[in-house]
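I'll show an entry:

:::
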Amino acid sequence: MTNRFIRRLASSLVNHRALYLLVPAIFLIIGLAGLPRFRMDNALDVWAGADPRMAALQEEFAHASGVDDFILVAWSAPEAMADEEIARSTEVSKSLSGLPFVRQAFAGPVLARLLGPENALVDGLLLRRDPQGNDWMAVLALLETDRDATAALVAAEVRQALEPNRPPGGFRVGGPTIMNNALDEASNRALGRIMPPLVLVIALGLRIALGLWRLALLPLASALLVTGTVIGFLGWLGEPGNMLLSALPALLIIISLAASMHVVWHWRGHSGTRQQRLEAVLSRTLIPGSLCALTTALGLVSLSSSMIRPIFVFALAGAAGVLLSFVLAFSLVPVLLPGAVRSGGPPVERKHHSPLRRGRALTLALFGAAALVSALTVSDLKFLGSPLGFFPEDEVLARDYRDIEQHLCGLTPVQVVLAGEEGASLDQAADRLLPTLRAVPGVDWAQRIGIWRPFTGGDTPSPGRRYLLAMCRTSSVPDLGKLEAELGEAAGVDVHLVGAVASIIRIQARLLQTLLRSLGAMITVVLLIFVIILRQWRQVTAAALANLLPVWIVLGAMALWKVPLDAATVMVLSIALGLAVDDTVHLLFHFRRSLADAEAPDQAVESALAEVRGPVIRTSLITAAGFVLFALVDFLPIARFGVLLALAALIALAADIYLLPVLLCGGRSRRAAK
């Protein structure tokens, strides 16, 4: 049955080349047309909208208070009330108020002179003296709730408006929109820095591995077609970009290479007519290739169980790319192969030292030691608690936030919504809550929104609702889930904490659930695949151990290197398991074929290694080299994501070439050595 299907598929590829070229061309045209529509924009809003209930409460708060988003411009001087600083703050306030997206701007020194430095709107928010005796002052610009300006436009126009009044020490600028723009810029920068060297390194790696440019360009062209099509369709769907999707194009190029690489490698090792060569290639690669695509795609789909939309979109787009790369590897690539190289390519390399003949004890000892180290360190894994952890310490945004929060006030707004029966008791609950909120570590300033309404013209609060605003230090935002429960108990009513940056921090705390669900689903799928291939529990256990150990070692490396769990690194384990399984499936497929030919297990392992070692080693090394390039970017989640996957690819390669053969044969390896 399988042989008949392979013969028919090979015949179709030989006789209907135009059809197999037309369909990818259509996808390419549609994808390229959608690429201009794909934009990295308003990354913070994407994360904030991940929880619809919280997003609705945040919108309710914005309309009731007139305070939705803000930009805070701070600077220091020896004396805030000096005429020069009064004049500067007045000019800055006027410049910001003149921008079309600014509703109102408050100058700290001016308000201090009019209302007194102890005014609730001034003290601790717009004016403060630091321990060194310098005054830090700020102008607070409240942004329009409904505005068309993007974060990039807002940030650019604000900085342009500030330039004429720059103090000697410069301005420090912060706020949700500034954070939003920094995330967008870092995502775009990461994408721009990774792609050119990635394509070059992969092209050179394929050329070295396959020996001819005509062969090397086929897997690369297929991977680029997959990437352009998937990103283009995201553009057509209007899916906004975010920091995770900035890594998707590079990830798609890398993971799309494996299937095509195996096809081209086996093509160059066979001779005969086109039909004969295609039948030989398909018989060796189609079944393991389909299983690899299935496991990798399901591993990515398992991440879509997360209710965090950026991870959900990343997972589905990645899975679609894997399936499309499989289709192209067994349609477009075979069609182009006969025209790309003459028959009679070089033979497959077969002379290698076997792990069954030497180093068995060393192999087990090394992997056992690495697993033990991981077990001792994995408890040290921590979640990233602040969006500032996405940036290097010398980044402008990190410097500005650090200075403002150290000398003036926190920049992370946490919007507090109280829900209860309308009446004086609800007002009393809000008043009781203020001292409790101000006493929370990390909270620098908190007030009811009534102080804003004379300036902002917010709507009348909804019946049964009261609102407070707290400004927290971004580097030490409290545990929002725990704080929400404590505030609710203190106030005696339902309390909800919302806000854009606060939503990211809350989502970070849910990443463990995403990690456990996705990894559990992926392990289940992998075990089913191994059962289908091997049908013997001892061999299934050996294969599972050889694939789970690299994931466990990567987890330990994260803890050892103090890499925090964030929205990017939480996906590493599922993707790493998918990468490990790809090579294992090819080895196990040929192992079972050799067993079916009445070979002993140790001889079957030797035959399987001789068959797949070449493409497996080369594909893994190219994959690792591609992921290492992620370290070129200064956006830390993406850099960590790539380096960890490079490590995973190398450990998985070592496990497949050295550990898995030893585990599959067990004690029989000693007879092989004799």
